[in-house]
Amino acid sequence: MFAVPLAHAATEGDLSGARAQMGFSLAWHIVVACLGVGLPLLTLIAEWLGWRTGDPALRILARRWARGMGVLFAVGAVSGTILSFELGLLWPGLMGRYGQVIGLPFALEGIAFFIEAIFLGVYLYAWDRLPPGKHLLTGVPIVIAGVASAFFVVCANAWMNQPRGFELSRDGRVVSVDPWAAMFNPAAPPQTTHMILAALMVAAFLTASVYAVALLRGRRDRYHRAGFFIPFTVGAVVTPFQLVVGDWAARFVAHYQPAKLAAMEGVYRTGDHVPLTVLGISNGHSGLKYGLEIPSGLSLLIGYSPDTVVRGLSEVPRSRWPAVTGVHLAFDLMVGAGLFLLLMGGWLALAWWLRRRTGADGVLSVPGTRAFLTLAVLTGPAAVVALECGWVVTELGRQPWVVQGVMTVRDAVNPAPGLLNGLWLVLVVYFGMTVATVYVLRRLARDQPVPIAPQESDVPRYPVT
Amino acid sequence: MLANLTLGVMWIGLTCYALFGGADFGAGLWDLLAGRSGPGAPRRALIEHTIGPVWEANHVWLIFVVVLLWAGFSPVFAAVMSTLYIPLTLTALGIIARGAAFAFRKASTELWQKRLFGACFALSSVLTPFFLGTVAGGVASGRVPPGLAAGDLITSWLNPTSLLGGVLAVLTCAHLAAVYLCAETERLGQPELGAWFRSRALISGLAAGAVALAGIAILHADAPRLFHGLTHRALPLVVLSACAGLAALALLRRGPGLARPLAALAVAAILWAWGVAQYPAMLVPGVTVGDAASTHPVLIACLVSLAVGSLILVPSLWWLYSVFQREPEPAAAPGEPGR
């Protein structure tokens, strides 16, 4: 194994271009990937309920979601492939040296993805070739493999936050690699759990949003109510767990990546009785301005006591500071969006409980007030905002490192000139793909379904407006 | 030993990608050349019907190769990706356009949309294998030195061997697809469609053969090391490839079912001939498999997980292909809710 000498970007513009391209294609893929993890679960629930009850509304819902799933999986598969290319195209310094350390989770992810693709092919295309129960079973590996691939990929990202499982020799070679230790680094458990729950939430709330719009427009039939209720319930159930896991993840960061937590909370000086500052922007050297301070709030959150010491940015050399304002605002926005989703889930639970006590019609009667539905439309965008902001916190909070404490982004970049042109090309292609994806998904939601399976001959007769 | 094993597994992955993924790309080329929307419709329908359920699984072979290259031979991955970043970026965009447009076309109903997405799907199906071929040519002719972007960013992929690789890749994909589709029409009992694809299989096969013959002269002048390897150590494989290819062409009319594995064998043999000719060099001339291989724990971990994974993968993959090779099962009586 020979050492890969590190190089620097051809120009500053190329470095920025590479960062922007990676960031943009990741930010795009992460939404589609979340739908790819969560949507199969929702579809299976709808198909299972439809099979159990014979209700055509539920079965047509399952069929539509399955078609959307097919489109989203294709888009997710290709946009994910690009990411594995970009790791080499844009960051060969990182991959040349540490590719072998994080190779294992990616190999495992490849297997999981393979299984997902195989069973998706069967699930989507063999609807008319398999009996309903068997068909339902072919969907189960899609869900399991989807969650597994999210787990493996985030393990690799967690390694960038907590690099383990290797040693560096004097001449810069990576020696004595332990790929399992690298994969199961300390950041892996909180990060993977946080991400998988986030994926379920994004898929659930985004889907629910679409049907909330329809309900608001007065389409209150069983089909639209089910389309709203199934995913919204899944989202509402997952959200409280996410709050606990998020707290765990933040506490983890406080312990293992103090500079990132300091940026998240805008803490400059180490000390106890540290206030929790909500919003506000950095003054560049000592604190946040325009923020709302809760005395001793941060110390209480992290150590359950106002005497808890929180380490500030002043412990880190200035050149190693992440962009405080960006990380802090992204973090607050994520928490705010999460709390909004928690409240909405609570509202649904309360309404459901009240209805049950007063004995009104079944579980499909969601709170029908306009206020609830209008806010419910916002849950999808809120979940996406929380997702993207959480990702910004993880990535921007690690800067200037690509691998925490080991390699900077600057050292990882491809020294070839012209990287900036790649960014423009990628932007153009992704713009086209975004427009087409949204357009096709909207079409799929409106079209009358084609009867694929003979056992579903009642489905196309079901009136859907 | 472990390094060679990893390389071998990676090469098997590359072969599978060429045979399965390549055929999907080739189908895209025939989609482009299927004619006007009227007479072209049944041809396009056959293509869509055939590759629809399997292309995503076939595509994963590429990810498999990429991941194994970076896990097993990180410095080679870094060198190839950084020097050849232009054709590889175009490949990546081609992959996006191909996959997304195919899924979009399947989901759209109006003719103009089908045309737009179809054109995008078909065009990128030609460009992607072309650029991958140029990458193979650049590596095979020793134009990728170790280090980051250490080779020439342009001539590493715009050179005689790369162009040969690109054209050969497109023609090979087209040939494989036409042969596969020809066999598919036989199974489905559609003789007119079969005749159309048979003549295309013949033309593309002869064209690929002609380009390969011309390639001998090109490699002799442009990549003497590769030429030497192909005409000495790898000669049996080259001969096998030529024989299998000719036999496939000869069998097209009488037994398209047999032509399919023979055409695949011809392509696989030429890929392995390249590997054998170049071995043990990974980056010609200096970097060998042993130089580039990761440490043993990494190789063992990857190989063991792949072995365990393949216990699930192989039967599933087999099942995927077989579900779509048999006719639909008789379903429940119409009108009865599915139970």
UniProtKB/TrEMBL annotation, chain A:
Where are the membrane-spanning stretches? 26-49, 70-91, 103-124, 136-160, 195-216, 228-250, 329-350, 371-393, 422-441
Q: What is its main location?
A: membrane
* Entry keyword Plastid: no
GO annotation terms (biological process): aerobic electron transport chain
Subcellular localization(s) per the UniProt record: Cell membrane
Membrane topology type? Multi-pass membrane protein
UniProt keyword annotations, A-Z? Cell membrane, Electron transport, Heme, Iron, Membrane, Metal-binding, Transmembrane, Transmembrane helix, Transport
Q: A single GO CC term, please?
A: cytochrome complex
Instruction: Cite the InterPro entries for this sequence.
Output: Cyt-d_ubiquinol_oxidase_su_1 (IPR002585)
> Short name of one Pfam family for this protein?
Cyt_bd_oxida_I
Q: Which GO terms describe its molecular function?
A: electron transfer activity; heme binding; metal ion binding; oxidoreductase activity, acting on diphenols and related substances as donors, oxygen as acceptor
Family, per entry = Belongs to the cytochrome ubiquinol oxidase subunit 1 family.
Q: Matching PANTHER family, A to Z?
A: CYTOCHROME BD MENAQUINOL OXIDASE SUBUNIT I-RELATED (PTHR30365:SF14), CYTOCHROME D UBIQUINOL OXIDASE (PTHR30365)
Q: What is this protein called?
A: Cytochrome d ubiquinol oxidase, subunit I
The organism is Streptomyces bingchenggensis (strain BCW-1)
Automatic annotation (TrEMBL), chain B:
GO terms for molecular function, please?
electron transfer activity; oxidoreductase activity, acting on diphenols and related substances as donors, oxygen as acceptor
Chain ranges passing through the membrane: 12-33, 85-104, 116-141, 161-181, 201-221, 233-252, 259-277, 297-321
UniProt GO cellular component terms: cytochrome complex; plasma membrane
Q: What topology does the record note for this protein and the membrane?
A: Multi-pass membrane protein
Gene Ontology biological process terms in this record: aerobic electron transport chain
Location in or out of the cell: Cell membrane
- State if Membrane is listed as a keyword: yes
Sorted alphabetically, which keywords does the UniProt record give?
Answer: Cell membrane, Membrane, Transmembrane, Transmembrane helix
Tell me which domain of life the UniProt entry assigns to the organism this sequence originates from: Bacteria
Q: Does the keyword Manganese apply?
A: no
One Pfam family it belongs to: Cyt_bd_oxida_II
UniProt similarity note: Belongs to the cytochrome ubiquinol oxidase subunit 2 family.
Q: Quote the protein name from its UniProt record.
A: Cytochrome bd-I oxidase subunit II
Q: Which organism is it from?
A: Streptomyces bingchenggensis (strain BCW-1)
* Organism lineage string: Bacteria, Bacillati, Actinomycetota, Actinomycetes, Kitasatosporales
